[in-house]
């Protein structure tokens, strides 16, 4: 009797969680529990994985690529000038070039001494003049002045430009101004220095047109005396095929300053020489 009650009591008790169902239950119970126990554990989703940090390294530039980049960025003066409107030169432009040229080799006091007085500058060309009309404006007493000039190895007026070809163009455009004045070509193309020295020694020349390099060489060889010089005109505003002015060309600019050092600065300070920017 006790055993029957014990079996009956045990059957009426709820099965504990996870405990095996007794062998007297429904068919398939053992199979379902087996499937639950042996069910594969799902793998964690790939989306839940932490992303790995990734660092991209920039490829190193080769020397050739660097040089190509630099060449591409560098702008030529002709490209810059082509996009800008032409502006007439002013005395301040020349003063600034003088300061820039000598700033690395002169002291502050010496640079101050190179400042040219405003009185030595003539009216600059406003880009509306021809050469003859400009010279007539800055030198209205030219006829009287040339008649009184009798010194050899000298000129009354010098016109400096960047090349022999440009000098010939300027000489042709002087017809309306020069009158009976004697004009001399002062450049190196097809003309030797000795020949020019002899011409200056034997003739009275009123006006010289040429390049700063040849003019400087004539002064150096004592073939040209700058003391009687009254007017020094720079062909300042004219531009060549590359849109460069004469002072934009390093070689020409260097020769101009070497010539200025050979007595032009002193003549300007004494106010016996006037400077013009055509």
From TrEMBL:
InterPro entries hit by this protein: Cms1, P-loop_NTPase
Compositionally biased region (Acidic residues): 1-10
Pfam families, sorted: CMS1 (PF14617)
SUPFAM superfamilies: P-loop containing nucleoside triphosphate hydrolases
UniProt protein name: Protein CMSS1 isoform X1
Gene3D superfamilies: P-loop containing nucleotide triphosphate hydrolases
Region (Disordered): 1-70
